[in-house]
Amino acid sequence: MDALFLVTLVVGTTALLxxxxxxxxxxxxxxxxxxxxxxxxxxxxxxxxxxxxRGYVTSLLVFNLLMFAVCFALLALxxxxxxxxxxxxxxxxxLVFNTTASxxxxxxxxxxxxxxxxxxxxxxxALMWLQFVSAATGIAxxxxxxxxxxxxxxxxxxxxxxxxxxVLVLLPLALIVxxxxxxMGVPMTLQGAAKALTLEGASQTIARGPVAAFLxxxxxGTNGGGFFGPNATHPLExxxxxxxxVSMIAIILIPMACVWMFGRIIGxxxxxxxxxxxxxxxxxxxxxxSVWFESVPTFALRDLPVAQTIGNLEGKELxxxxxxxxxxxxxxxxxxxxxxxxxxxxxxxxxxxxxMIRMWLNATFGGVGVGMINMFVYxxxxxxxxxxxxxxxxxxxxxxxxxxxxxxxxxxxxFHSLLILGGTAxxxxxxxxxxxxxxxxxxxxxxxxxxFSSASANNGSGxxxxxxxxxxxxxATGLVMLLxxxxxxxxxxxxxxxxxxxxxxxxxxxxxxxxxxxxGTMLVITVVIFGALTFLPAAALGPLxxxxxxxxxxxx
Amino acid sequence: MSETSSKSLFxxxxxxxxxxxxxxxxxxxxxxxxxxxxTTAVVAxxxxxxxxxxxxxxxxxVGFQAQLVFxxxxxxxxxxxxxxxxxxxxxxxxxxxxxxxxxxMGKKLSGASHEIVAASTLRAGDLVLVExxxxxxxxxxxxxxxxxxxxAAITGESAPVIREAGGDRSxxxxxxxxxxxxxxxxxxxxxxxxxxxxxxxxxxxxxxAKTPNEVALTILLTGLTLIFLIAVGTLxxxxxxxxxxIPVPVLVALFVALIPTTISALLSAIGIAGMDRxxxxxxxxxxxxxxxxxxxxxxxxxxxxGTITLGDRQASEFVALxxxxxxxxxxxxxxxxxxxxxxxxxxxxxLARAQGMEATAPTDAEVVQFTAQTRVSGIDADGxxxxxxxxDALLKLHDFDxxxxxxxxxxxxxxxxxxxxxxxVSDGTRLLGAIHLKDIIKAGIKERFAELRHMGIRTVMIxxxxxxxxxxxxxxxxxxxxLAEATPEDKLELIRKEQSGGxxxxxxxxxxxxxxxxxxxxxxxxxxxxxxxxxxxxxMVDLDNNPTKLIEIVGLGKQLLMTRGxxxxxxxxxxxxxxFAILPAIFVALYPGLGALNVMGLNSPQSAILSAVIFNAxxxxxxxxxxxxxxPYKPRSAARQLIGNLTLYGVxxxxxxxxxxxVIDLAVGALGLA
Lengths: 556, 674
What we know:
The complex is a heterodimer.
Chain A: H1 2-29, H2 38-45, H3 53-76, H4 93-104, H5 114-117, H6 120-149, H7 158-183, E1 194-197, E2 203-206, H8 211-220, H9 241-266, H10 269-294, H11 321-334, H12 349-361, H13 370-389, E3 395-396, E4 399-400, H14 403-429, H15 431-434, H16 441-456, H17 471-500, H18 517-532, H19 536-551
Antiparallel strand pairs in A: 1-2, 3-4
Helix pairs in contact in A: 1-7, 1-9, 2-7, 3-4, 3-6, 3-17, 4-17, 6-7, 6-8, 6-9, 6-17, 7-8, 8-9, 9-10, 9-11, 10-11, 10-12, 10-18, 11-12, 12-16, 12-19, 13-14, 13-18, 14-16, 14-17, 16-17, 16-19
Chain B: H1 12-24, H2 28-31, H3 35-57, H4 62-102, E1 105-110, E2 113-118, E3 127-130, E4 140-144, E5 146-150, H5 152-155, E6 161-164, E7 171-172, E8 177-180, E9 183-187, H6 195-204, H7 212-233, H8 235-241, H9 248-258, H10 261-280, E10 283-285, H11 288-295, E11 299-303, H12 304-308, E12 314-320, H13 326-337, H14 343-354, E13 366-368, E14 376-381, E15 384-389, H15 391-395, H16 402-417, E16 421-427, E17 430-438, H17 445-454, E18 458-462, H18 467-477, E19 481-483, H19 488-500, E20 505-509, H20 515-520, E21 523-527, H21 532-537, E22 540-542, H22 549-587, H23 605-629, H24 638-671
Parallel strand pairs in B: 11-18, 11-20, 18-19, 20-21, 21-22
Antiparallel strand pairs in B: 1-2, 1-3, 3-9, 4-7, 4-9, 5-6, 5-8, 10-22, 12-17, 13-14, 14-15, 15-16, 16-17
Subcellular location (chain A): Cell membrane
Membrane topology (chain A): Multi-pass membrane protein
GO molecular function (chain A): P-type potassium transmembrane transporter activity; potassium ion binding
């Protein structure tokens, strides 16, 4: 009952908040001609005119490359740079690469522990800066996509959009959430670690820093990179039930709002409502699954003479209860956030499967901006198959879906499965992966599978139980993150670019409607079949095998 | 052609050659056009090699592997068979047409004399003489003479048609027979590019290029195949982590079961059969692209006459103007119509006779023919110049007396309001009155238009009538819109306007002045009786000259795409059951607990794998009739269309393989195959 209440509270509140935010974001990102501070942003960036899809993508890539280079330098030189009160040392080159890739791509996969390795300058100027602009990049890309679909004839200008997203959307929200967190007791200081004398007389070093600011954008921007290694399971990063609640809302707020923003810009709010419903359906299914699977104690404890009624408590922050762990797990992975509120490695096997499924789908609700872009790819596939079934050349909102569009959409799906399954195969079969897992058998395999899923989906949560700060892991996941980030942004924009080059078809009772339950059903089926079926064999060898070998049922 | 349009799909005459062709199509050069089936063949070859290796070394379960190999090859063969069967139906027709073509000889004119040459040597611009009983050797235009021609070889209709020089009835087709009189024909096509050649290529499927939608679907299916290649190809590495391995033949079975073989095997058969249905409907599409476009049509331009109303308008009344004797009007109307062979002209003469008028044209009378530009016709005789025609057109001839003009207007407006067509009659500078022509609207046409409206298709009636008449007929017939007093330029303009609004337009036409509009429209159906120019401009030719068919053509286009979509959905939905059959079978050796996924309760791992592969192969011939006949098509809105097809083929595609695989598993167990 508690579980149901908490889930309803979090998902319901966020859904309610997301609608006005979506409207605001549409206003901020895509203002009417001459409205909003467009002139200022134009002057700052020197952006001229508007861009087609090629121009937009080029600006986006150059900007990201620049950010990558600057942050790489900041991290690599942190030992000689200021704002380093605890005198953190140099990082290894492969870890710097991995971390920079991770934060540039909005992944925030962390192969380090912040309080151990990072100076405040690294945390703030490199990592937190990237948490803002990488999220802004996602929102900008979605805005461009929506403009193309709306039939504007151009995609706007990336350099202006990225400023709008940072200044008008992320900054105000982060300010509100950051203030709230600071008030609730999350540290916000530039002083070094505190030294304390314990009751026993021992001396203790308590890591602290500008956590509240970091925390706010970590959640809002679906970044997920914790200030501290244990992320939101750390008491100073998540002190109470109330910080926990707001954190969970902040995780999924903007991804939800992105759907409404998309609907507003394309002028089809009802279509956005259908997409939103589909995403919520997947979200609820995964939460229900997680909470249900986690309500039984872990197998290892099953036969012990202890109270078994509370469910699986292994690896949970007990301050926060058994429900919030799996709920967070689903929320964090359902967006591409990846902050953790419980040890995913300790979740029951089928609970652990839920966040993996979400990362395989990567579109319910997905990362800031990019989640909706991924859903767009599924929509293209759904429209193509459904369109034929209504007896017309398939079209999406009047845009004909033909060979080129199908090719690009399938390439996105192909790349995603190649990065996850190909990477997992490489590491599962070699000592790179085999030597790094902490568990044997199916569970160990799950650890590798989860890591690559997290990297490709730009999620950044870790299953953990993996010794992943190795050269092989750092370079492999770094590359997967980069490919998993930019390919699914570039190709969908190319699809829309191809739409823009074609004459738009008129809509009638004979064209496929995208605003009704039938289309929603078609979309659900498409996501399940094209997104999830590919990963079923891997799931069978990982979490499913893990689960069933513990239940021990008679084979055949 | 109608004699071959029987419903039987599976006569031995078609099945036997199709089986032979299925084997012949294993040629890699042919197979690679279909990437999924090509992949299946490559994988089957791999399995064959492995099975032979096992047989020689004695390692592995040779019996099981041999059965797998058998069914994998059968999957490929079934796909080939479906395509061969679809092609086979056209081939018989092509053979008949070809034998007609082979015996064609022409009498090539050079000056006054002619020499007999083979038709294949005739070039565009040559003149040939065709006499009674001759076959016309090449496509062309009649430049001299009138003849009745039997076009049964092309249309299957043995009723002769008139072909004459000038006007819109001048085109003749190679292979048709002149059964009276003689004509001189100017050849208009180069050898090998005639109508007959095109038809042979078409029914044979030789000229078949993949349509845009087919290309897109092939890409989707190929992409899916690549994704499943990753999903299956990474399994050995995954199991290596657990220190185990999976036999390659089993992986091959899983891969083939997962890739969309069902739709890929039937894909080209669906396309060929779609064209074939059109051919059976006596419509020749010049490309598959045109058939697909037919399904996308948003606006139908329909000629009023023959489509919405019965072709024959009947004269029902002569209305004389004040001060004009009724007899003068009737006589003038009759004289002006004597040389008019149209049904309307004949009905005017008939009505005049019925009213007791007898008139004959003087021998020196000069007939003024109706043209689309002047829109009047008549006769010049005895110094009189009698004209009848569309009211506006006739009034332009002279500066008629204003009061008479006004009187005529009030008469013709009344006729028009009643849905009739007024024809004005004049004698020199004197207006006499009007003839009331009545349109008779076809039974059931209103319901058809309502259906089309539900499908989201707008109908526009094209008529030469004035706006009032057009409005009355439009209201009565239930058409959505009309274009009155339409000139060819107006039609072209209307098509352009609709297209710039993103709508696809279909129309039919026959005259030379229809050619620009036919070319501009997305689907232009030319009547076979039409001019060569019209037939060249359209992308379909209707051999029966029935403009109503436009509605059915749209339906056929939709049915083609729906069949593709439905079978794609079915094929992909099948994967769920196949996974549940094969995955536990493969993994149970590694993790015995995974036997829990064996929800179908299949006999043994080997039996499960074999059953899934057998189901995967057998479903292809099982669906061939559906692919060739097309899914049942009902005109309804897109939303209902989707619900219907998604329920039938999506949900059906989920359930059927669960049942099918279980049944096959029981059979396999009973026969002791695995």
